[in-house]
Specification:
CATH topology of the largest domain: Rossmann fold
Number of domains: 2
Strand order of the largest sheet: 2-5-8-1-9
Helix content: 40-55%
Number of strands: 11
Radius of gyration: 21 Å
Order of helices and strands: HHHEHEHEEEHEEEHEHHHEHHEHHH
Shape: globular
Structural class: alpha/beta
Distance between the termini: 46 Å
CATH superfamily of the largest domain: P-loop containing nucleotide triphosphate hydrolases
CATH architecture of the largest domain: 3-Layer(aba) Sandwich
Number of helices: 15
């Protein structure tokens, strides 16, 4: 199939999907629980990470995961692709990687004197950028356009990536030698950053026992068209203006801590959360509400995701680094200081 024909086919499928009604919250919850059940047949534990993967999928954002090796980060995204029927690509970031290894390049055909475009591995539904901080900034920046605009420019031509599209990047917090910290503009494109630790004893026992038998055969729980309908359902989730104001207040408190009764934090924060912080927080809260079977968001949804949405957007001072003050410790104080809005749940349910 030619590139033009494929693009036309994608447009036809998108038009058909737009005509499909969004599932009701109970229907969406049931569909998503079926998908989670299939993923958990392969992945033991890591429930928070799995939930955040679905939240980013529903909110059409990207996910950054930080954890030591061996915590099933790669297996999670590969399993998710299989359960949702999408295409999967993995890019192992190394210091000798170049941008064309990601997005593709133009190749000269000497036989007929023309150039052909070879598309790179970013043209998939689920992209795993493994150990993203091992590649230099030039390679990391190659992801900026595709993460933000969902397109890649090669030469004079622009190519759209498939829809839906999710980038899940991983970082290893142990090693610093031979790594390149992500630029602020790059890290700000990730909707959520999740920190994962070692599994509990019973979870790790399950992991080891599963290695003694054949891996279960994955069953597709959702189609990509059904996922697009769920994304529209997340977009339709109601967010009270008071919750939007609360998200902005939390972000503002990281920029002006003294104005919110936290003068001691000013010495630890060089730059607070960017405007993408509250945007990501509200969008992901809508997705979490749908995942939990509601068509309206609650303050509990925002608080559950506040650290994931804001921790990577804080730039700490040298004093904070010297005293080992973490972004999570700062956000704990901010969330405790910002007044929580009181919602009229009867009015919200009727909205």
């Amino acid at each position: 199939m030619s590139l033009r024909a494929a693009t036309k086919r994608e447009a036809e499928v998108a038009e058909q999907t737009n005509d499909r009604p969004s599932p009701t919250p109970p229907e969406a919850k049931e569909q998503l629980e079926q998908a989670l059940f299939e993923i958990r047949r392969v992945i033991a534990g890591q429930d928070a990470m799995l939930e955040r993967v679905l939240v980013c999928l529903l909110a059409q954002g990207h996910l950054l995961i930080e954890g030591v090796p061996g915590l099933a980060k790669t297996l999670t995204i590969k399993t998710t692709a299989g359960v949702l029927g999408g295409t999967f690509s993995r890019i192992q970031f190394t210091p000798d990687l170049v941008p064309s290894d990601l997005v593709g390049t133009r190749i000269y055909r000497a036989g007929d004197g023309t150039f052909d475009t070879e598309l790179g591995p970013v043209f998939c539904n689920f992209l795993l950028a493994d150990e993203i901080n091992r590649a230099p900034a030039k390679v990391q920046s190659a992801l900026l356009e595709v993460m933000q605009e969902r397109q890649v420019t090669i030469g004079h031509d622009t190519h759209r990536v498939p829809d839906p599209f999710l980038v899940m990047a991983t970082q290893n917090p142990i090693e610093s030698e031979g790594t390149y910290p992500l630029p602020e503009a790059q890290i700000d494109r990730f909707m959520l950053k999740v920190l994962i630790g070692y599994p509990l004893h019973d979870e790790e026992l399950t992991v080891v026992q599963r290695q003694l038998v054949d891996a279960p055969e994955l069953r597709q729980a959702l189609s990509l068209d059904e996922l697009k309908a769920l994304q529209q359902g997340a977009f339709d989730v109601y967010v009270d203006p008071a919750l939007v104001s609360y998200a902005v207040d939390v972000a503002t408190a990281t920029r002006e801590p003294a104005a919110h009764g936290l003068p001691d934090l000013a010495q630890y924060i060089a730059y607070g959360a960017s405007p993408r912080g509250p945007i990501s927080l509200v969008q992901s809260a809508r997705a979490l509400a749908l995942l939990r079977g509601r068509d309206y968001a609650l303050v509990e949804d925002l608080n559950a995701l506040a650290k994931d949405a804001l921790r990577h957007r804080l730039v700490l001072t040298y004093q904070a680094l010297a005293e080992e003050v973490s972004p999570d410790a700062i956000l704990d104080q901010v969330l405790a200081a910002v007044p929580v809005p009181q919602l009229d749940l009867a009015r919200v349910s009727a909205a």
